[in-house]
Design a protein that fits this description.
The complex is a heterodimer of chains A (293) and B (236). With 293 residues, chain A is mostly helical. Helices cover 72% and strands 3% of the residues of chain A. In chain A, the strands form 2 sheets. A two-stranded antiparallel ribbon of chain A has the order 1-4. In chain A, helix 2 runs antiparallel to helix 3, helix 9 crosses helix 10 and helix 9 packs parallel to helix 11. The mean pLDDT of chain A is 92. In chain B, the strands form 2 sheets. Chain B has a 6-stranded mixed sheet with strand order 6-7-8-3-9-10, sandwiched between helices. Chain B has a 4-stranded antiparallel sheet with strand order 2-1-4-5, with helices on one face. Chain B is globular, with a radius of gyration of 17 Å. Classes of the chains: A mainly alpha (293), B alpha/beta (236). The site of magnesium ion (MG) has 4 residues of chain B, from helix 1.
């Protein structure tokens, strides 16, 4: 039962990593950049939910909705003002800018909310489910996280493969020039990608803070890095890769915590990444990278 | 007024000038060839026309309308399609999805279905392989897909960049037959080729580009007999 319970909470944690990893991988696939500020958008999402629900006393669903809208706008604004002017700059310049945006978001949160850890109140009101005569108890957060993530991932796959803007995203990620010749607005598509990624980050923020209810300006940093690892693990640029990579990472992390050592769980996660990359440099589902000019 | 007018364009890559004050016309219904050696500036010229590159100076007119500053993604909707050098099909998408991508700016589902039928009639090979991933097609099939994809936008003028590049003689013949049929259907063609012989045999007129300048222009059959063209480009 311990194994099952660790596995289920690993899947739940992993689904959150997947939601975040999707933002990394979609932005990488389409804008060919690593948006290191992505993790901090999760933290901002957490603070928006906190402000809406705890400070202003709005219902949880309203708080999450406001956070999604806020982060979507924030993501598009970050792209428009920080990254778009660097479209033809070196990737190093873009990377440094992304790190700068990350610090900016952390410091803005620090200025507004202070450095003390806020105790977040869960957006989930589902009672824990107890199975096998109480030997296996699954928290409401775990259940909601898994269900919400599955719905989002299915919706995203349908959106990308079946809708016009989704197919435009596929085309842009393959060949920006050819996509433009088809009539696809590349700037618009990049903005849409940031919007979706940031909206997912808001959901991830609300779920993460509900499961681990401590919110500080640095809340997004570690999950951000882990989700980035998950994206690389699954094959950066690959959407199914980000989903699988995130869930596997969550499972590995939780099982290491449960059976090996909670201090060693992070090193184990990174060691697994290194091994995977040594065996398969493009990640689990990664394609060969053929960048076109 | 010509359908496509290029006037005094200059294009730079950093300090290097790739296009030097080029002007030329393509009239409605014509096939015009742009020939020249590697690095002459043919691809750069086409990219500048469809907005993938921007000219430092000069103007480009389509149907008399200045399109010099029109962004690349708005060009196809104005009736001009571009089959890029190296095909550039969307490798991970199916043949069918690639063709649908060509009709991205069109709304009318019925008309799109008609165009698809037309493309499948023109390229039966694509119909057979409609569900195959484009990256696994042979070079010749990819070229046909790139042409079919461009035709899916129902263009009035189509720019083609070395459609015969890297193809076996059989496929080269096929490609040029298709170009003749496209012309017969009333579509205007600006054809970039290194295969000058073939290009001049389908073209009405031609321009010869050398290191970023137009050095010779004239009717295609005149150029076929031009001493300089024969020496430099026809291997005679
Ligand atoms: N992105 C670029 N950066 C710098 N120089 C470039 C770039 N693209 C093209 N050039 C240069 O501009 C000149 C014209 O290149 P272009 O690709 O237009 O030639 P082309 O006539 O199409 O040749 P080919 O027949 O080999 O395709 C060449 O000297 C080339 O090196
Ligand atoms: Mg070329």
């Amino acid at each position: 039962m311990k194994f099952l319970s660790q596995l289920i909470s690993g899947i739940s944690l992993g689904s959150i990593y997947s939601l975040i990893a999707l933002g990394y991988t979609m932005v990488y696939g389409i804008a060919k950049m690593l948006n290191f500020a992505h993790g901090d958008v999760i933290m901002i999402g957490g603070y928006v939910v906190y402000t809406a629900c705890v400070t202003a006393g709005l219902p949880a669903a309203a708080g999450v909705l406001i956070a999604i809208v806020f982060c979507t706008v924030l993501g598009v604004a970050i792209e428009r003002f920080a990254y778009k002017p660097l479209r033809s700059a070196s990737s190093l310049a873009v990377l440094i800018t992304a790190i700068g945006v990350s610090y900016l978001l952390q410091n803005v949160a620090l200025l507004i909310f202070g450095s003390d850890t806020k105790s977040f109140s869960s957006v989930v009101s589902l009672e824990p489910v107890s199975l096998a005569d109480g030997a296996l108890v699954i928290s409401g957060e775990t259940i909601v996280t898994i269900i919400v993530s599955v719905i989002i991932m299915v919706a995203l796959i349908v959106f990308i493969n079946k809708t016009r803007p989704g197919k435009a995203m596929l085309a842009v990620s393959e060949d920006k020039g050819a996509a433009q010749l088809m009539g696809i607005n590349v700037n618009g598509t990049i903005a849409l990608t940031f919007a979706i990624g940031s909206g997912l980050a808001a959901v991830a923020g609300a779920l993460l803070c509900s499961a681990y209810p401590a919110l500080s300006p640095y809340t997004g940093a570690m999950p951000g890095i882990k989700a980035f690892v998950a994206a690389v693990f699954g094959g950066i640029g690959s959407i199914p890769g980000a989903m699988i990579g995130g869930i596997l990472l969550g499972i590995i992390e939780n099982l290491s915590k449960g059976y090996i050592s909670s201090q060693l769980s992070d090193p184990i996660v990174f060691a697994v990444l290194i091994i995977v990359l040594l065996v398969k440099p493009t990640g689990l589902m990664g394609k060969k990278i053929n960048e076109k000019v | 007024m010509a359908m496509l007018e290029v006037r005094d364009i200059n294009v730079f890559f950093g300090v290097i000038q790739a296009i030097k004050n080029i002007s030329f016309d393509v009239n409605q219904g014509e096939v015009v060839a742009l020939i020249g050696a590697n690095g002459a500036g043919k691809t750069t010229t086409l990219h500048t026309i469809t907005g993938l590159l921007s000219a430092a100076s000069g103007n480009i007119y389509l149907d008399g309308k200045d399109i010099t500053k029109v962004p690349a993604h708005k060009i196809v909707g104005m009736g001009m399609a571009h089959v890029p050098e190296g095909r550039r099909v969307f490798a991970s998408l199916s043949v069918y999805d690639n063709l649908k991508m060509g009709a991205y700016t069109r709304k009318d589902k019925k008309e799109i279905a008609q165009s698809l039928e037309m493309v499948f009639t023109e390229f039966p090979r694509l119909k057979e392989r409609r569900n195959q991933v484009a990256g696994t097609l042979s070079g010749g099939e990819q070229q046909m897909l790139a042409m079919g994809r461009a035709l899916m936008s129902k263009p009035r003028i189509i720019l083609m960049d070395e459609p015969s590049m890297g193809l076996s003689p059989l496929y080269v013949d096929e490609i040029f037959k298709i170009i003749s049929r496209i012309k017969k259907d009333g579509t205007t063609v600006l054809l970039v080729e290194q295969n000058a012989n073939m290009a001049l045999s389908v073209a009405d007129r031609a321009y010869v580009l050398e290191t970023g300048k137009i050095i010779i222009e004239g009717n295609a059959n005149e150029l076929l007999n031009d001493e300089r063209v024969r020496k430099a480009y026809l291997g005679a």
